[in-house]
Design brief:
By secondary structure, the protein is an alpha+beta fold. It has eleven helices and 19 strands. It has two domains: about 1-335, Beta-lactamase; about 345-440, Nuclear Transport Factor 2, Chain: A. Helix 2 packs across helix 6. The longest helix is centred in the C-terminal third of the chain and has 16 residues, at about 375-390. The chain is globular.
Length: about 450
């Protein structure tokens, strides 16, 4: 009797994304109620050698690894060696006096005011003291606890705190207290010189072609803002611990699920290592580093967690993760979005002017609030390079607006001749830009 081929919607979804984004390889894991429903690799881990992706293939985690740094900090709290509301200067020699009001909790929550990045040279090796001094020399963006803004530098500093307290590199502490106890058998810190089985290669896109990721120093690949290798099986072990509340005490898990709180009492849609999305009742975090992307998505009410790891920078990992979740539970499928009525058309016009200024390299520092000069320069240069390549700006429309976290946060879509961008912008009560993120979307009506 001839065999009948059955369509696999998971395979179809992954293969479609790989084709659309020219992504070499993808690995996924799906956990529900503490059980592994699926772990699978697709495509190639190494194009040059023709090595396929498997469920135990290692990817660079990027900022998704911040969840593990947050858990490591809570282990030290449980050990009695750290207090979340104590200033970082209490634990870290070399921390500048201007950080004396910056607490460990604020570093975890991204409310510390520390710069977005360490602002060093990614191709230079530094000692811990040298890298700390580089970060310490930068101005704070805002007084600690007055605002929320994502900071890689804050988690790098948390890694220094772990090393100061334990007397060993943060990766050794993770191995002993996180990876080994949880059965994360292949998780490890990044070491480009080591022989590491099942390590994949990351690929960047330059002039429309895949290329190997550019070389960076070992220092830039050894910080606690996510410089680790994980497989989706490693992440599934971590997701099991989150589901079953293993490893940490109940009080610690409670701390890790609390929204960030500002000095004025307002809360922000972030808990240590997780963005909070009330509209979809989900938590998520993404990472992007050296041609790798990772995305972790959790629905606490359904105890469902999806992880997507890829080795190409063009993939839409959020679309893939949420699509996989909807295949498990169709109730999680998201409706397509559409522009909403704008009660203040001048606000949309202002966003258009802002985007045109960014594209032309003419951003006005006075239009922004609580940005140190260096962070302002880096932010506008990054986004200027992205949007200037897209040609003329044709349309700007508002898709979402809400107040909270000491700002009014809006999401706009901007249609350019060469593509579509989503503009996520936070404004103070005086109308200045307090947060800004610009990222590509493929479809004007893509779900929010």
């Amino acid at each position: 009797m001839p065999q009948v081929a059955h369509a696999d919607p998971v395979d179809d979804l992954v293969q479609a994304e790989m084709a659309a984004s020219n992504t070499p390889g993808v690995a996924i894991s799906i956990m529900q109620e503490g059980r592994l429903l699926r772990a699978q690799g697709f495509g190639q881990a190494d194009i040059e050698l023709g090595v396929p992706v498997h469920s135990d293939t290692l990817f660079k985690a990027g900022a998704t690894g911040m969840q593990l740094t947050a858990a490591a900090i809570m282990l030290l709290v449980e050990d009695g060696k750290l207090s979340l509301d104590a200033p970082v200067t209490q634990y870290l020699k070399g921390a500048p006096q201007k950080w004396h009001k910056v607490t460990i909790r604020q570093l975890l929550d991204h409310t510390s005011g520390l710069p977005a990045t360490p602002n060093g040279d990614f191709r230079t090796d530094y000692t811990t003291d040298q890298l700390l001094a580089i970060i310490a020399a930068e101005d704070l963006n805002f007084p600690a606890g007055s605002r929320w803004r994502f900071s890689y530098a804050g988690y790098i500093v948390l890694g220094f705190v772990i090393e100061e307290i334990t007397g060993e590199h943060w990766t050794k502490f993770f191995q002993q207290r996180l990876f080994d106890p949880l059965g994360m058998h292949s998780a490890r810190g990044i070491d480009e010189l080591a022989i590491i089985p099942n390590r994949s290669s990351g690929y960047e896109v330059r002039e429309g072609k895949l290329r190997n990721a550019e070389w960076i120093s070992q220092t830039a690949n050894s910080t606690a803002d996510g410089s680790m290798y994980l497989s989706v099986l490693d992440y599934a072990a971590w997701a099991h611990a989150v589901s079953q509340r293993q490893l940490l005490l109940p009080g610690s898990w409670k701390e890790l699920t609390q929204p960030a709180k500002l000095n004025d009492g307002s809360t922000c849609a972030y808990s240590p290592g997780w963005f909070l999305a009330p509209a979809t009742r989900s938590w998520w975090h993404s990472g992007s580093w050296q041609g790798f992307q990772t995305y972790a998505l959790r629905y606490p009410d359904k105890d469902l967690t999806v992880a997507v790891f890829v080795n190409g920078e063009g993939a839409d990992v959020q679309h893939l993760a949420r699509g996989l979740a909807a295949l498990v539970d169709p109730a999680l499928a998201r409706d397509r979005s559409a522009p909403m009525p704008e009660a203040d058309p001048a606000a949309t016009a202002r966003v258009r002017v802002l985007l045109e200024a960014i594209a032309s390299g003419q951003s006005n520092y006075a239009d922004y609030a609580d940005f140190a000069q260096l962070d302002f320069d880096e932010l506008t240069a990054l986004y200027g390079g992205m949007v200037s390549e897209l040609g003329g700006l044709e349309e700007v429309a508002l898709f979402d607006k809400r107040k909270g976290c000491a700002e009014t946060a809006s999401r706009y879509r901007a249609r350019y001749k060469g593509g579509i961008m989503e503009v996520r912008i936070g404004l103070t009560d005086t109308g200045k830009v307090s947060n800004l993120e610009i990222l590509p979307v493929r479809d004007w009506n893509e779900p929010l």
